[in-house]
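Lecture 7 notes: from sequence to structure.
We start with the chain below.
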Amino acid sequence: MSIELRLDDLSSPEVVALVAEHLAGMHGNSPPGHVHALAIEGLTQPGVTFWSAWKGKALCGCGALKELDPGAGELKSMRTRSAFLRQGVGQAVLDEIVRTARARGYSHLFLETGTGEAFAAAHALYLRNGFKWCGPFADYEATDFNVFMVKRLGEA
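Predicted structure tokens for the same chain:
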């Protein structure tokens, strides 16, 4: 069964629960004060586009794109539900976000994520897709608990 990506307004209880699951996971794997994941209020702000991922009637993941400026975006809220891990959900969401960033004319797509074993699969996904390690961007500060990546768009 294929994965369907939907632009989402975050109004359904299922999607609200998935965002809560994502936040709980981030807080469970990062020290207090070191989680930069967006809650519903942040994901519904102007400049943020949110997608939900579905296999049939089952919500299996999500992701968002936040505009940093007219030439750059930030990947936010990438999450795959545990029952759908290693089934291509993260790749499908990432592909849609990269496609949208390119269509908007962004030259760079950034992300900030955590460190440690809980984030290893995410790091591997991003590296496979052409992201490279970089320094802090926007208002982020480097700590022992986060890392930064960038993908230059338009490159092979």
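Points to note: The CA atoms of residues 61 and 80 lie 4 Å apart. The mean pLDDT is 91.
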